[in-house]
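@channel sequence for tomorrow's demo:
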Amino acid sequence: MKTPLSIILNPTLAHDSVLGKIVLQKFESLTPELRSTSDLNTISLPEKSDRSLFEVLSQPGGHFICEFKQASPTLGSIREGDRIEDVVKEYAPFASAISVLTEKTHFKGDLNFIPLARQFCQHPILCKDFILFPKQVVQAREYGADVVLLMLSVLQDDAYRACAAMAERLGVDVLTEVHSEDELTRALDLGAKIIGINNRDLSDLSIDLASTEKLVKRIPADKRKHLRIISESGIRSRADVVRLAPLVDGFLVGSSLMAETRIDLKLRDLVFGQTKICGLSNSVDADLAYMAGARFGGMILAQGSKRTITPQRAAAIAKRTPLPLVAVFKDQAIDEVVETAQLASLHAVQLHGSENDDYLETLREKLPASVEIWKTLHV
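structure tokens (generated this afternoon):
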């Protein structure tokens, strides 16, 4: 039996909106077989998922669902051409789950990305698409998805129930997306276990992190303890994470990661902030600092420390580590600082002495523009 679109879609969804147009195109692209609901009780099903997002989000600590997204309607092309395998390898050390866009027309996604992602991590894989029918859930699981996105801005309650019921049969978690108080109320009434609060208003595509703050407060305390809440869209900085972390169990981050040249460093910024491990004296320790999540590695070039190293040693470390390096100097000749910065490809020089404004101005003129100057102030 084919299900008419009118009993699938949320009646408040404007068909002439960006979201409405995308959903209608998605509906038209689905085969009659995927739209069919007559044989749901008899179809052959793939193996159940063995990676639970709910269980992962129940573990202590902040969690990040990191997304592979090559394009979007708002940004256009973001990072087309990158292999998902390479991106997932960058995400894997600090992500709790991987989100994979599979919608082709507007997000340049592909269901074939799911098994590729699954090969390179042990995390739950979220199939992020516009799911309208239960057989799309089956299809997502056939490709290896452990989680599916169901959007209450798109689906009526009965359509949601049908898709969620199929997900339960497959051991697949449902990330139920809401943006408004009405959608949140529906999610609670529908028994959603993982709720994603989208900070983007899909009617005009604006973003407001206050959406998460407002809606979390509307969840009764007796229900909140049984839910896992994700904040979606607009998470661009560590300050955003710190602001919302007390309210949610995790964050879904895509564009702000994919738009960066160094995804690995941006992820560390979000998860740990601008952390620096100082006193590095060899490349092994530099790599350990990088793997632990450090954003910068510090080396001491100032005289008088047990950990002081030579410019040549600093350069050798720089050649062997992906970690941006910062060197500590104290009242040293400007030419010495500049020469070391160039030799060791420093990200920054950190000054711990009595360097005055004239020193700083001259140093700035002589240093490569890409090298930052950090000045320690004694208080």
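heads up for whoever presents: Residues 5-272 form a domain with the TIM Barrel fold (CATH 3.20.20.70).
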